[in-house]
From TrEMBL:
Name of this protein: Dicarboxylate/amino acid:cation symporter
Span of the signal peptide: none
Highest classification ranks of the organism: Bacteria, Bacillati, Bacillota, Bacilli, Bacillales
Any one of the GO CC terms: plasma membrane
Transmembrane regions listed in the UniProt entry: 7-25, 37-58, 70-96, 159-177, 198-220, 232-253, 303-328, 340-371, 377-395
Keyword annotations: Cell membrane, Membrane, Transmembrane, Transmembrane helix, Transport
Gene3D superfamilies given in the database record: Sodium:dicarboxylate symporter (1.10.3860.10)
Top-level division of the source organism's lineage: Bacteria
Membrane topology: Multi-pass membrane protein
A GO MF term: symporter activity
Pfam families xref list: SDF (PF00375)
Localization: Cell membrane
InterPro entries, alphabetized: Na-dicarboxylate_symporter, Na:dicarbo_symporter_sf
Length: 418
């Protein structure tokens, strides 16, 4: 059965999914529920893994001497890397001008998409969503604490689950440190390993899950839209690959492995990210790779990776910064230095404020930055949502790769001390 986990089997199923989406769209759309079923199974196991990993790692940090330095490194790396991604998105947008010089034919296609939205093509997007993120960081703070943790678990609200896990881990660590009894931490570790085993079983049907998901995504997009937004989506891919190259070099240097070896170490994680287009679903694989293949400290990785994946959404920072430049160019709005600084800082803050929200909802939060700049953001939101299935695979892959590189910078190797 090992052939089911082979990279060639996975790539073959991805290629088959793309072919089905392009040439058999009706069949592909019928396969969507099966892909969603597999994704739901992954999410079912991922949330317990995230909870147990954070509770265990935070608890053990209370009994270690290097927790302060770890937290300082984590804050510095997360913040600086997000601002670097935002600056890269702005620079590429200004140089390549994705929103300028769009042909009349492509504008007609985009106009049709906007018209479809007004008649219900993208229901729930548009004027009614102008306040979707109007309170910004205050909403982020108010939504951080769940009124009912069981509702948060049922809804898969990763941000609230993360906060709950940190609080529980702190309490467990405090009690364990005072009593000297690690029995409860051992039970949490056992639960973590149990759900990891279930995830490892699910990898045998990963190729088929990817086939169903990708076929449905391609069929739901349409060739005309792909061509009309080719320059913008192409630039997203270029920026994502450039960031992956930089993070790949960093991982290679830190791990003292060749670039190709470091990439192979994250092969499973990146494949899951590409197919599922869900960063949370890759968490078990990333944790396993960083602990067992790159030999990073287990407790630190179990804390840094979930926090990074939930809060540091590099993919959304890239989409916000480049997307805002695209909207401004599409409507021929001049952006001065002050406006560019607003985009640079606003893209990072908005991505943090949108932590835990689904990708589609997070895209609509671009209004937080667009409104102060007086940009007609509703059109941009519609277009970004329309091409989301085209850019989501690569931005999810880059998000996971950059988060892995950030973890390499923050966490010491096993036994090196923190």
């Amino acid at each position: 059965m090992r052939w089911l986990k082979s990279v060639w089997t996975i790539l073959g199923c991805i290629a088959a999914g793309i072919w089905l989406g392009l040439y058999e769209p009706e069949l592909s759309l019928k396969l969507v529920p099966y892909g969603n079923l597999y994704l739901s199974f992954l999410k079912m196991c991922v949330i317990p893994i995230m909870v147990t990993a954070i509770v265990s790692s935070v608890g053990r940090l209370f009994m270690s001497n290097g927790s302060t330095s770890l937290l300082v490194r984590m804050i510095l790396v997360f913040i600086s890397s997000m601002f670097m991604v935002s600056a890269l998105g702005i620079a590429v947008g200004l140089l390549a001008k994705p929103g300028a010089s769009i042909s009349a034919g492509n504008k007609a296609v985009l106009g049709t998409i906007l018209l479809d939205n007004e008649t219900g093509g993208y229901s729930g997007v548009g004027a009614g969503d102008t306040d979707s993120g109007s309170n910004g960081l205050m909403d982020f703070i108010f939504n951080l604490i769940p009124e009912n943790i069981f509702i948060a678990l049922g809804q898969g609200n990763s941000l609230q689950i993360l906060f709950f896990s940190v609080v529980m881990g702190s309490a467990l660590g405090f009690l364990s440190a005072r009593s000297g009894d690690h029995q409860f931490l051992s039970i949490v570790d056992l639960l973590f390993k149990m759900f990891q085993k279930v995830i490892s079983w699910s990898m045998y049907i990963l190729p088929f899950g990817l086939l169903f998901i990708i076929a449905g995504q391609i069929a739901g997009t349409g060739v005309e839209l792909m061509l009309a937004m080719f320059k913008f989506t192409g630039l997203i891919h270029v920026v994502a690959l450039a960031m992956m190259a930089a993070s790949g070099i960093l991982i290679s240097v830190k791990s003292k492995l060749s670039f190709s070896e470091s990439l192979r170490g994250l092969k499973e994680s990146l494949t899951i990210a590409f197919g599922t287009q869900n960063s949370i679903a890759t968490m078990p694989s990333v944790l396993d790779a960083l602990r067992n293949r790159f030999k990073l400290d287990t407790d630190s990785v179990n804390l840094v990776v979930p926090l990074g994946i939930v809060i540091c959404r590099y993919s959304m920072v890239m989409i916000y910064s480049l997307g805002l430049i695209f909207i401004a160019q599409l409507y021929e709005v001049h952006l001065g230095l002050q406006e560019l600084i607003v985009i640079w800082v606003g893209s990072v803050l908005t991505a943090i404020a949108g932590a835990g929200t689904p990708g589609i909802v997070a895209i609509s939060m671009i209004s937080l930055v667009a409104i102060p700049l007086q940009l007609p953001y509703s059109t941009g939101v519609i277009l970004l949502m329309a091409v989301n299935s085209l850019i989501n695979p690569i931005v999810t892959v880059s998000n996971i790769h950059i988060n892995s590189a950030a973890a390499m910078l923050i966490v010491e190797k096993e036994g090196a001390g923190t």
